[in-house]
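quick one, 410 residues, struct below
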Amino acid sequence: MTPPVTGALVGRRLAAVLALFGIAYFLSLFFRSVNAILAPVLERDLGLGPSALGLLTATYFLGLGLMQVPIGLCLDAYGPRRVQASLLVIAAAGIGLFAIGEDVAILSIARALIGIGLGGCLMAAFHAAALWLAPERAPFANGLYLAAGGLGTLAATAPVDLALMVMDWRTLFAIIAAATLVLAGSIARVVPDPPVRSTVNWGERIAGIATVVRNPAFGRYLPLTALTFATGSSMQGLWASAWLRDVGLQDREAVALTLTAMAVALTAGSAAGGWASLVAERVGLHLRHVVLGSAGLFLLAQAGLLLSSGDLSIAFWILFALTYNAVTLSYALVARGVPVAFVGRSNSCMNTVVILSTFAVQYGLGVFFGLYQSEATGRIDTSAFPLGLGALFLAQLAAFAWALLGARRG
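---
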């Protein structure tokens, strides 16, 4: 495999560059998860049911998912500075529109724009790590990026609940829109362009997607990654709050605290996954062991949720959040099978399927749960939650077996 493109990006400059991309991914996960706390407010202000709330929330993933291949092509062509700074301007526009939107249609368009604008955060971060870090250190940096995203999820829980006590959600979004513009300007100013620019034409870049898809690891790990992340993100980003409320009978404060604990677990698990990738290869193991081990623990957490009740379920929710994001270290694992010039396309093709799967799962669960909603109380029948999660669990189990079979053959 071709070594990464390295330049004189070291010390504080390197730290600043990596930190800026981490902040961008923080924003991405914040908006991925914030509707779990905003849901009761949006239900009250807009009169939303589960199906409409699922669609409104999922449009973020639709916008994000549809942009992944174009973003990957642009990252390989122009580098992460130009792509990420430009996209953040679009994100700021979407956040501002959400702050002033008055109906579901406008708010859905705004969420889609936010998804488009934040669609390159993870891919640009991974691309920066591939450009300016040694190959063996890139998975560790990717784990830290995932941890930064976990902090974004954390910020979308109890801190948002506290912020809503002193301001309305529209004011909060207006402030975040302004901060996003500042971040875009900072990336444009601080981050350098790649030390070597590609001279490949666009036809060859698009044709290069075939190289990515033919990579054996791509087809082996994509189903597991997509189903794991879609399930984890859909539940933690929206439906876990309804589960905790209707099955766990928690009040608003307790739900916020549980979601906060899950966000802390997501952050810790993401960082631990990156650290484990370094340790595993030092002791003769492989990055695939970290990916498969995380997926196995995530399956265990779901089995616990399906079989347990009462206070014990909280422990399984923590394990649930601790493990699913670390499975996306498979991006680095898959990218090792292609030359560095194809890394952006490899990551973006993976992310396209992962994010569109998340859109489908989140919206699909909303439609499914809507069938079990009581018109009198507005609550979802408790039998719907294990049915929905159980179907996803079985699909993940099959994908896990498929990935495990490939790992044994390799």
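The first helix runs from residue 11 to 33.
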